[in-house]
TrEMBL record:
One of its GO terms (cellular component) is cytosol. Keywords: ATP-binding, Helicase, Hydrolase, Nucleotide-binding. Residues 18-170 form the Helicase ATP-binding domain. GO terms for molecular function: ATP binding; DNA binding; helicase activity; hydrolase activity. This is Helicase. It holds the Pfam family Helicase_C. It comes from Budvicia aquatica. InterPro entries: Helicase/UvrB_N, Helicase_ATP-bd, Helicase_C-like, Helicase_Restrict-Modif_Enz, P-loop_NTPase. It comes from the Bacteria. The keyword ATP-binding applies. The keyword ATP-binding applies. Signal peptide: none annotated.
Length: 541
């Protein structure tokens, strides 16, 4: 007997399964983030085990075996009846009623012949031998098969699962408050002309990673990511999705140079180190985790901002990644999503991607040419040309800044400007707010002086004016401790200045005639400027 009760989505799914149980041998349950997929699996498993029936639960990765078992035990399933199909594991016992295995381990072994139910987690992933086993079980035995997926969009699913069970949607979960709302912004977008497409087991057809990395590693694009986050990220706990390890390293270095604690996590990061990184992230010691495809499944930490810097054609990849920021948390009002990839223009909002039947255009046995996705033009959002907020389909006046576009203005996207507004309403600063900002700028000046790297009163005045458009006339000079918001604003302006200075120097070098001149002291390069002048509050780089 389980110690949990089903939520509304789980209750619906269980009722729909009971309704169709005798008519079909295999089912695909659409279970988005926040609907309680593992809990649903627990209810289904308990129903079978209580009647003396054996269940095999398949997870996509070995790292999820223990995590799933722990969840089952928490729900009240008998611990002494849970066995692992995992070499040399102390809980390996083929006689136990509940068997948990990873897909990659299972397909290298002889498939168990004594089960009554097969449950496949993340069933949209392509494992050829597992698909063959599903086909055999449903056509030649009485074993039932249930697939679970938050993105059941793979082109082969209709060939192996007979009935789609769709108890809820992302849109409904957001409206109920079971998932966080979101705000999309498109601060910049790369030019992907000429980038080829390749196939993968997890995401179907998508952009070639090596070609993507060449584009996304560009200094301007990486710099845009960090500058935009400093100006608009509100110092929120953030996950950044990158193309490959090289790209992730570039982004992480740029964050660290700006004084932001960022760490890299990739498929090559050892499990123990991943747990330490996640722990530091949850404690606030690490502000940004820059990752390459490893925080897609089984990651439930409190994420309040997503940086998406991995262009994609895959609806599966898009929803899986963005979904990491949609879990609710105490004090979380909404999730900020900064799309630096152009994906929201191609694929739309995550809660607008819905299917009412399972695709069946391939058998999943061989790599096929990418099927052209049916274009849902009417569901694609439009970018506000003024503040880069992504307006929902059909919305004319921007709900973020109130801009009313001229005829045809929102057809072409201007990605050359920075993000202007993030808050739901344009913030009105009071005199007290402005005094706090000025006092924190003066605190920063005193801090720099104590470090032997002073900044002038004129610098302080210009920094204030770049924020509010006026000089700090009539304000008091007393300092107060600097906040992350003011600190990040200062860093973003210094980075922009340093890069502008470097660009100006390069232009001068290319325009000046190549003749011998007396030796002069060259202008500082931006990297040296950053080292000498950009210092995180309270310490040195």
């Amino acid at each position: 007997m389980l110690n949990i009760t089903p939520n509304f989505s789980q209750d619906r799914a269980l009722n729909m399964l009971r309704r169709d149980w005798k008519q079909h041998n295999s089912f695909m349950v659409y279970s988005p983030t926040g609907s309680g997929k593992t809990g649903l699996a627990g209810f289904i498993t308990d129903g079978h085990v209580s009647r003396g029936m054996r269940v095999l639960f398949v997870v996509p990765y070995t790292t999820l075996i223990s995590q799933t078992a722990d969840r089952f035990i928490q729900y009240g399933l008998p611990e002494d009846e849970i066995g692992y199909i995992w070499r040399d594991h102390p809980n390996s016992d083929p006689n136990r009623m509940i068997q948990i295995a990873s897909a990659d381990t299972l397909i290298r072994r002889e498939f168990p012949d004594n089960i009554d139910l097969l449950i496949v987690d993340e069933a949209h992933l392509r494992r050829k031998k597992l698909l063959e086993a599903i086909k055999y079980l449903t056509e030649n035995t009485k074993v039932k098969v249930i697939g679970l997926s938050g993105t059941p969009f793979s082109s082969f699913l209709g060939q192996y699962y007979q009935q789609l069970i769709k108890p809820t949607t992302i849109k409904e979960l957001i409206s109920r408050g079971d998932l966080s709302s979101y705000e999309f912004f498109a601060p910049s977008a790369p030019n992907l002309k000429g980038v080829k497409t390749q196939q993968s087991n997890e995401y179907g057809g998508d952009y070639n990673e090596e070609q993507l990395a060449e584009i996304m590693c560009g200094a301007d694009l990486v710099g845009d990511i960090v500058r935009n986050w400093l100006e608009n990220g509100q110092d929120r706990s953030t996950i950044c999705f990158c193309v490959n390890v090289r790209h992730a390293n570039h982004v992480t270095i740029e964050f660290n140079r700006a004084g932001i604690a960022a760490e890299v996590m990739t498929a090559g990061t050892p499990h123990d180190e991943r747990q330490l990184i996640i722990h530091r992230f949850e404690q606030g010691a690490t502000k940004v985790i820059v990752n390459v495809g490893v925080l897609v499944a089984g990651f439930d930490s409190d994420v309040r901002c997503i940086i998406y810097a991995r262009p994609t054609k895959s609806e599966i990849r898009w929803i899986q990644c963005v979904g990491r920021g949609l879990r609710t948390a105490p004090g979380k009002d909404t999730c900020l999503i900064f799309d630096h990839s152009g994906s929201v223009h191609r694929l739309g909002f995550p809660d607008a991607i819905e299917y009412d039947s399972l695709p069946g255009t391939s058998d999943g046995m061989k790599d096929s040419k990418v099927q052209e996705r049916a274009k849902r033009v009417e569901k694609l959002p439009k970018e506000c040309t003024q503040c880069h907020f992504m307006k929902p389909a059909g919305v004319y006046v921007c709900p973020k800044c109130g801009h009313k576009p001229l005829s045809g203005e929102d057809v072409e996207v201007d990605s050359s400007r920075g993000l202007k507004k993030v808050s739901k309403k344009e913030r009105k600063y009071t005199k007290e707010d402005k005094q706090r900002w000025w006092s924190q700028i003066k605190y920063y000046q005193r801090q720099r002086t104590s470090m032997g790297k002073p900044v002038s009163d004129g610098w302080c005045g210009h920094t204030y004016k770049s924020k509010f458009g006026t000089w700090p006339n009539g304000l008091q000079d007393y300092p107060i401790e600097i906040s992350p918001e003011v600190s990040n604003f200062i860093k973003s302006k210094q980075i922009a200045f340093a890069k502008g200075r470097e660009k100006q120097q390069k232009q001068q070098e290319t325009s000046e005639p190549q003749i011998a001149l007396p030796s002069i002291n060259p202008a500082l390069k931006s990297s040296e400027y950053l080292r000498q002048h950009i210092t995180p509050a309270g310490g040195s780089l």
